[in-house]
Sequence to fold (620 residues):
Amino acid sequence: MIQHLADGILVGSVLSLGAIGLTMVMHMLRFANFSHAELLSVGAYSALVFDAVFAAIFPFLAVKIGPLSMTVALALAMVLAIVITGFSALLIDRLVFRRVREKGAELSMVFASFGVALVIRNVIGLAFGLETNLYSKDIIFAVAVSRDPLLLIKPDQVFTLIAAIVIMFGLHLVLSRTTLGYAFRAVAENPGLAQVNGIRLSRMIALVWIIGGGLAAIAGVFYGLTNQISPIIGRDLVLPIFAATIVGGIGSVYGAVAGGFIVGIAANVSLVVLPSGYIPSIPFMIILAVLLIRPNGLFGEVRT
Amino acid sequence: MMGFISYAVFFTTIASILAIAVLGLNLQWGNTGLFNGGVVAFFGAGAYGTLILGGSPQADHIGGFNIFYPLALFGGMVIAGLLAWVVGILTLRLRHDYLAIATFGIAVTFENIMRNAESLAGGAKGVRGFERPLRAWIGDGFAYNLIFLVVVLILLFLAYRFLQHLVQSPFGRLLRAIREDEEVALSLGKSPARIRLTAFVTGSVIMGLSGGLYATFYAFISPQDVLPTLTFQIWAMLIVGGAGNARGAVFGAFLIWGAWTASGWILSRFAPIDLQLYTGSIQYVLIGAVIVGMLLWRPQGLLPERLVVSQSGKPT
Fold:
């Protein structure tokens, strides 16, 4: 039980990072972006490529940081992956979503996002192969935190959780303390009024994509670090991430953080009573429960 | 020659069955603007429902009620409708994202439960013990497939006529009114949420019919038949054919199913051996590109919706 809870919190931190970007995009552009989870794959695979490149050019970078399986090379590769994924998200918007949006076919955006997701996922599969990859082939043993009840945790998992919390706190400071944060919230609240006050809508939209993509890249690398990297990361995570945004209420950044942890914990704790084959069904059950009890989520406001 | 004809019959049967599902989606998306991300769940509910109701008793899973076939098929449609009603009632009052996510979720969950719950529907092994209706009299050969095709074509025609009638009726006008401007419909004293629910359930029942026929044709259904791929294919059919135009929907079904089978055949025939493993990935990239490309360059589809003016302005 306690082990499931710990695992759930760790998965939850990855889902939260993914859900923050998704909820911001959904709030500002008002469409369910089914290609968001593919950005996690883009981030995970970019980091994989640059990790190999850095380790090959500068062998001294391929040293582990403390007890982690993460190397200095991977940490640097992650920074590049954040940039690349952020700009890929922006590029996809320019190539597809913005053009569909400008045609005035807002409802078609969700179709387009499915098409984009299919293309990204399978191009990754074609480029990197359908098999799974790992950042490090070394086995990192889990540390027994307690023996009764048994609780095993890997150093990587602790690092992932702490890093995720630090990043979310940083985002909170930006949103609540800076002019940029005010501008963000103003656009989400009332795009028309925000523009009257001299906020450029197109710049804000671009920024949302870059931030959302960057956070997705971090989530993807963390997921790869604690699980494994495969082209179907996006397919497996799309529904849990959506569940996290619905639990938190579409548009609420804090809700997305809470939702990610709730979905992660619920999915893992349910293993106590359910066979593991049913895991993919849990997010939908959570969505149904939220829609029945509190349709606008924990922190969402009523918007039509 | 005979081989070609029997393949043509097989191809037309599957394409026509899928065309029925595309007609159902056209009512939801084309006429009402409802996004259904889980077509395959309603298709699957019809398929599993028909086989479980109409099959013979099995030791390892429920079902085998041996119900008279048309009733079993109808039962499958009812199950699809009930599933749609549950999803619809929870999401159609909310902003449209919720319907998209919930329908996508129910498709994932449906496949997952069918794969795992062995006592319900045979799990990964699928549903067995169903005998195609009238097989004892007609046999298994070419004649059966030909008669089955005729039945499918009749049902496709009936579904087409029914939907045409529905869309041209005052109810159809209401659907388009809600799609274009919900508040106007509301101001005229209509209830958009209820009308949308009706359209969503009706469309899903038609998808259930399609699934029931598909399962009858193979006399078998397994989780492998209810993967998300089918949803993407059915969308591509509607978007390419032309959302809002029932004739376009049927045309798109034949076109995309032809392109899908042809691309599969070409890849299996001419692609190098080590690429064979990636045939699926290539086909997915193609179908994703078709969806995105159509939305960018010809969002109205090959046969666009024809807007009808219900009453001419001419004085009588």
